[in-house]
Amino acid sequence: MKPNLKNLPTGLRLMQDPTLNKGTAFSEAERDALGLRGLVPPHVQCIDDQVQRFLLTYRKRSTDLERYIDLSSLQDRNETLYYHIITKYIEDMMPLIYTPTVGLACQQFGQIFRRSHGMYISKNDQGNIANVLRNWPRRDIRVIVVTDGERILGLGDLGANGMGIPIGKLALYTACAGLHPTQCLPVAIDVGTNNQTLLDDPLYLGLRQRRTTGEAYDALVEEFITAASEAFPKALIQFEDFANHNAFRFLHKYRNRVCTFNDDIQGTAAVALAGIYSALRITGGKLRDQRLLFFGAGEAGTGVGELMVTALKADGLSESEARKACWFVDSRGLVVKSRTDLNEQKLPFAQDHEPLKDPLAIIEALRPTALIGASGQPGTFTQAIIEAATRSAGRPIIFALSNPTSKAECTAAQAYEWSGGAAIFASGSPFSPVEFNGKRFVPGQGNNAYIFPGVGLGIVAAGSRLVTDEMFLTSARTLAELVTEADLAKGRIYPSLKQIREVSLAIAVAVARVAEDSGLATEKLPTDSQSAIKELMYQPNYVSLV
Ligand code: NAI
């Protein structure tokens, strides 16, 4: 998408538009034609000089939160330069824009707030949301990421401060998959917060009330979804960091009505399944022979379980055989049929087994081949647990998916050391490589950032009317296929983040194909869909404005 050169603002107004601003990189011709002469220093810089200038200060910062503020301020001033930098240095920048630093940024949102970004729809807008959405200056929105702030990463209820998450996720849509920044809209639905610390904080920026719940809450979300679908009919709506009890309900309520998905449930599932596919290339095992033990039976855990069942069925297993491969532990122990406290998501995974609470006894009884942590509880994978899993599996697959880093079920070093170097490890937040017994292990980051940008690009390219489970299954397979033998030799079960644009493109092509094959596409892609989709991807470089 090229800027509309006919109605360009000029002078200071142009410089204050972050989409068009180039700062010191405006050319001589642009300075003459657009009333910029005298408003910028005389020397014309190229984008590489601007990158160096930014990095000079950025690298001197002593904390990640300060670096986060530098990046957000740059995003507010000059989007092209911001995306140029985060795309070029994605491995370094992803932990800043997203987990773990974004968690800290959300916790301190009221203190670090500089300039508003995205839209806030509050309880007070009820009955008027369609009008509020008209205040957004752009109409061609293709991706909306919306949160109500109730379950931000593993940090709990952060109310309107949760806005940092949609902003970060959409930055990744642009950096990783080339969705144009002007086609992305971050939204925070503010129905209050039950976080007393925030309610007592004079700098908190959200509504000063406890959460609205029940019918009034549902009505607000319904009004938002209806208004957003009318105002932005081509938009994919991604639900993000809603609490468990609402996330599943909304997914089921809206998935056959609007183009929507829940990344915590479906995106996480695809990235975990891709990790299992890659890990099996190391162990030589087959998916159908695995016994997966999940710690955490919430959005992330049961979401992974459901996609695993879909994958096992595609492998020829019956539904009940597939479910027998997936075992769950929640805060009250093993999920078994005799329990009377299981919700709708856990019930299909309840196994015919005696109730067990002690994690070690569970591992010794079940002899799992994989431990998948999505409990939000740090330290869940103790030394005894990892040693027991190693005894039963030989080479256990160990995923500590909980975010941010402080919530991971174990660290990468613990997984490698306690398994004697046998574990195939991945985590939700990044861990540095680990030296153990003279070998260097590169832990994979099982972060859904490998999946959702590509899925979104494929859906947008095909104009898919809905988002299906098959799209996530396809994206998991595509991601796993991109892992090289060299990656596997280092213990890495995901491709390097440096390749994220190619990964997203490959996933987008596969997802667009699924949309076409399932009759959901509204756009006709040419035979060479890869080139066509690549062509759609935003490149963060300056374009001439004259
Ligand atoms: P949730 O609240 O829906 O589920 C948490 C589950 O953990 C519940 O079933 C609870 O009973 C269980 N649990 C609590 N203590 C436990 C214990 N000691 N042992 C076993 N289970 C226990 O939360 P959700 O949305 O599933 O998120 C969980 C974690 O996964 C969070 O830290 C979140 O940040 C992370 N996550 C990671 C993603 C990634 O891309 N790596 C994506 C989505 C979530």
How would the blueprint of this fold be written?
Layout: H1 11-15, H2 28-33, H3 47-60, H4 64-77, H5 79-88, H6 90-97, H7 101-107, H8 109-112, E1 119-122, H9 129-134, E2 143-147, H10 164-177, E3 184-190, H11 196-199, H12 214-231, E4 236-239, H13 244-254, E5 260-262, H14 263-283, E6 292-295, H15 299-314, H16 319-324, E7 326-330, E8 333-334, H17 359-366, E9 370-373, H18 383-393, E10 397-400, H19 412-418, E11 424-427, E12 434-436, E13 439-441, E14 444-445, H20 452-462, H21 469-481, H22 485-489, H23 500-517, H24 529-536
Parallel strand pairs: 1-3, 2-3, 2-4, 4-5, 6-7, 6-9, 9-10, 10-11, 11-14
Antiparallel strand pairs: 7-8, 12-13
Bound molecules: 1,4-dihydronicotinamide adenine dinucleotide (NAI).
Structural account:
The protein is of the alpha/beta class and 546 residues long. The protein is built from 24 helices and 14 strands. A 7-stranded mixed sheet has the order 8-7-6-9-10-11-14, sandwiched between helices. It has a 5-stranded parallel sheet with strand order 1-3-2-4-5, with helices on both faces. A two-stranded antiparallel sheet has the order 12-13. The model has no long low-confidence stretch (mean pLDDT 96). 1,4-dihydronicotinamide adenine dinucleotide binds at residues 151, 153-154, 244, 264, 268, 271, 295-301, 329-331, 374-377, 380, 401-403, 407, 428, 446-448.
